[in-house]
């Protein structure tokens, strides 16, 4: 498999994630889509790093995983706060701040 | 690639630690605040406030000690140079003003807990790390560190749905932007094999697209640079990527809004200048034209949207989007004059914005609610000094002479004319004239609308509170609406806005001296 194929797969995953963020209404699903985008970048880094025989891409992947974990903690906190106020985690109910 | 000889060098650790000393001091103080939070009762935020201020002062001290050195640290991920000295000064000043503003704001609401100040310190240290990082890993980590602290701070007002909603929108769009940044990094890495900005720069410079690299690396590089630009433009709140800005600025507690509008924006522009002067400098895909369009759209949209706002905080949020457009002009103009003009504008910008937010906090404390534009009709008669200060900040934001905003615009626009961007400057000047309308409209309303005809004005609320002293809530409002910290912020901002407008020479020299280190790596 060529490294280009890996990058094409990564791009497809990234686009699926981006579409998920734009289309989905559930806060948790949106976060999963964001994770998908992050992991598309992970896949790309691992593939390129392996192909070029370098190590810095692999290091980047580990940092991305750590950051994704930290963000999960923050998002769940926000989701719980949002649920307490609105009784739902549908983002259509986040409609107090408008143009 | 790791340089093993550097790793075993005797001074490696020492130099690395020195290169992040101002940030490390802030992080240490942030942890001290967290630890002390264990021993104090929860409502006691007094100590953490002073510790945070001391932390900022110590960080300034280290910055001053190190200010003449250029230090590379952590295998070339971090650099401390003159450029950082300028940005650290601006970011620390913005943090200092934010902490002073916070005291008054949270005292009035009785929600102060020590974690707030430690989060502010973490966020400031991350901004400083961001500006001094020259490696894509380090840039990503700093952006996330800064943003995660800012997400929590935005949603800090517990039980207020606006605050939570602002945090949620900020989180989703901020993380979305980070994903774009990451995916851009993948393509740049695929095209060049480097993550260090200057190594990428050298690689592109040599145009050495060797056979063992991926054959279509030029396309990859272009894709990567575009995605990277999208990720950074989110943080700078440029036009198509600005949508989180008004909502999270509006929902956040006002001191946090001040931190986001000054510190985070300054840090985002700092790293953008670093990235732009290195890896975007080859004009692949005509990035100057892309930025030209972004700047015009950002200015125009920000000003038109600000015109329609009735909420003061949202108005300043939209006007800060427009200001980002003006700042971008300096970067497009580029070179020594353009970048130093941009730096001067950023310095001027934090003072006028912090001053305006100080006054917004004063308004908010009077009403303990969101600030509608109608509520300060006739304010100028009851509180002449406050109204005069507010007018001065608004005039500075509009760019009237004698204020810092005018000098900032002057430097940026003249640099753009020197580089031949006549149309850009023409559109920007039209925009400033247009923006002056909604700034001056507020001043007109403060001074020229009769407050007798409007029962909802703040001046009347104050009158009411004087009459009903026995009413407990009103008494609190009367006591707390102005404290010494708030007055200090407003006076500091006034002085600097005036000095930067009248004697800009030492400050522009400071900016110009710091810019030279950008190209001397």
From TrEMBL, chain A:
Give the EC number: 7.1.1.-
Enzyme category, top tier = translocase
Transmembrane portions of the chain: 6-23, 30-48, 60-83
Entry annotated with the keyword NAD: yes
Q: Where in the cell is it found?
A: Cell membrane; Membrane
Catalytic activity, per the record? a quinone + NADH + 5 H(+)(in) = a quinol + NAD(+) + 4 H(+)(out)
GO molecular function of the protein, one example? quinone binding
Q: What is its main location?
A: membrane
Where in this chain does the entry annotate a coiled-coil region? Answer: none
Membrane topology reported for the UniProt record: Multi-pass membrane protein
InterPro entries attached here?
A: NADH_UbQ_OxRdtase_chain4L/K, NUOK/Mnh_C1-like
- Which keywords are on file for this protein? Cell membrane, Membrane, NAD, Oxidoreductase, Quinone, Translocase, Transmembrane, Transmembrane helix, Transport, Ubiquinone
User: Is the NAD keyword given for this protein?
Assistant: yes
State whether it acts alone or in a complex, and with which partners, per the record: NDH-1 is composed of 14 different subunits. Subunits NuoA, H, J, K, L, M, N constitute the membrane sector of the complex.
According to its UniProt record, which protein family does this protein belong to? Answer: Belongs to the complex I subunit 4L family.
Q: What NCBIfam families does the database record attribute to this sequence?
A: PRK05715.1-2, PRK05715.1-5
Identification of the protein by name = NADH-quinone oxidoreductase subunit K
The organism is: Candidatus Acididesulfobacter diazotrophicus
Q: Which gene encodes it?
A: nuoK
């Amino acid at each position: 498999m060529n490294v280009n194929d890996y990058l094409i797969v990564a791009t497809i995953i990234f686009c699926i994630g981006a579409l998920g963020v734009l289309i989905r209404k559930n806060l948790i699903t949106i976060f999963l889509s964001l994770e998908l985008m992050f992991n598309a970048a992970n896949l790309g880094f691992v593939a390129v790093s392996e192909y070029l025989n370098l190590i810095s891409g692999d290091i980047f992947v580990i940092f991305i995983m750590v950051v994704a974990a930290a963000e999960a903690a923050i998002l769940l906190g926000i989701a719980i706060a949002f649920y307490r106020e609105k009784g739902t985690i549908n983002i259509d109910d986040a409609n107090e701040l408008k143009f | 690639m790791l340089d093993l000889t550097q790793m075993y060098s005797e001074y490696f650790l020492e130099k690395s630690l020195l290169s992040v000393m101002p940030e490390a001091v802030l992080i240490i103080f942030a942890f001290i605040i967290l630890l002390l939070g264990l021993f104090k009762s929860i409502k006691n935020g007094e100590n953490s406030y002073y510790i945070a201020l001391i932390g900022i002062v110590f960080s300034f001290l280290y910055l001053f000690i190190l200010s003449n050195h250029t230090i590379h640290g952590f295998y070339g991920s971090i650099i401390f140079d003159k450029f950082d000295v300028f940005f650290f000064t601006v970011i620390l000043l913005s943090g200092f003003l934010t902490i002073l503003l916070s005291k008054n704001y949270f005292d009035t609401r009785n929600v102060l807990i020590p974690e707030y100040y430690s989060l502010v310190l973490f966020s400031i240290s991350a901004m400083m790390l961001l500006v001094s990082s020259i490696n894509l890993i380090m840039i990503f980590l700093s952006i996330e560190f800064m943003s995660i602290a800012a997400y929590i701070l935005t949603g800090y007002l517990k039980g207020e749905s606006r605050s939570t909603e602002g945090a949620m929108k900020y989180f989703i769009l901020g993380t979305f932007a980070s994903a774009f940044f990451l995916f851009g990094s993948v393509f740049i890495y695929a095209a060049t094999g480097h993550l260090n900005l200057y190594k990428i720069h050298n690689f592109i410079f040599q145009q050495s697209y060797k056979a063992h690299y991926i054959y279509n690396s030029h396309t990859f590089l272009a894709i990567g640079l575009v995605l990277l630009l999208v990720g950074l433009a989110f943080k700078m709140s440029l036009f198509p990527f600005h949508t989180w800005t008004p909502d999270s600025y509006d929902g956040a507690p006002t001191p946090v809004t001040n931190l986001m509008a000054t510190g985070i924006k300054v840090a985002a522009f700092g790293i953008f200048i670093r990235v732009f002067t290195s890896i975007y400098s080859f004009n692949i895909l005509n990035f100057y034209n892309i930025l030209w369009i972004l700047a015009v759209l950002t200015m125009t949209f920000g000003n038109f949207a600000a015109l329609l706002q009735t909420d003061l905080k949202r108005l300043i949020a939209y006007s800060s989007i427009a200001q980002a457009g003006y700042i971008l002009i300096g970067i497009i103009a580029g070179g020594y004059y353009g970048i130093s003009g941009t730096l001067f504008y950023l310095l001027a910008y934090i003072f006028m914005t912090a001053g305006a937010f100080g006054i917004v906090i004063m308004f908010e404390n009077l009403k303990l609610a969101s600030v509608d534009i109608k509520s300060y009709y006739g304010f100028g008669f009851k509180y002449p000094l406050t109204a005069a200060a507010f007018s001065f900040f608004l005039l500075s934001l509009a760019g009237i002479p004698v204020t810092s905003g005018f000098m900032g615009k002057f430097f940026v626009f003249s640099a753009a004319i020197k580089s031949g961007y006549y149309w850009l400057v023409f559109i920007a000047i039209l925009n400033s004239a247009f923006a002056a309308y909604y700034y001056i409209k507020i001043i007109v309303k403060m001074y020229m609308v009769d407050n007798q005809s409007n029962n909802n004005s703040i001046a009347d609320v104050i009158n009411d509170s004087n009459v009903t002293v026995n009413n407990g809530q009103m008494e609190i409002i009367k006591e707390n609406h102005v404290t010494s910290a708030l007055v200090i912020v407003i006076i500091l901002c006034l002085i600097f806005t005036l000095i930067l407008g009248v004697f800009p020479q030492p400050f522009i020299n400071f900016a110009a001296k710091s810019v030279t280190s950008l190209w001397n790596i």
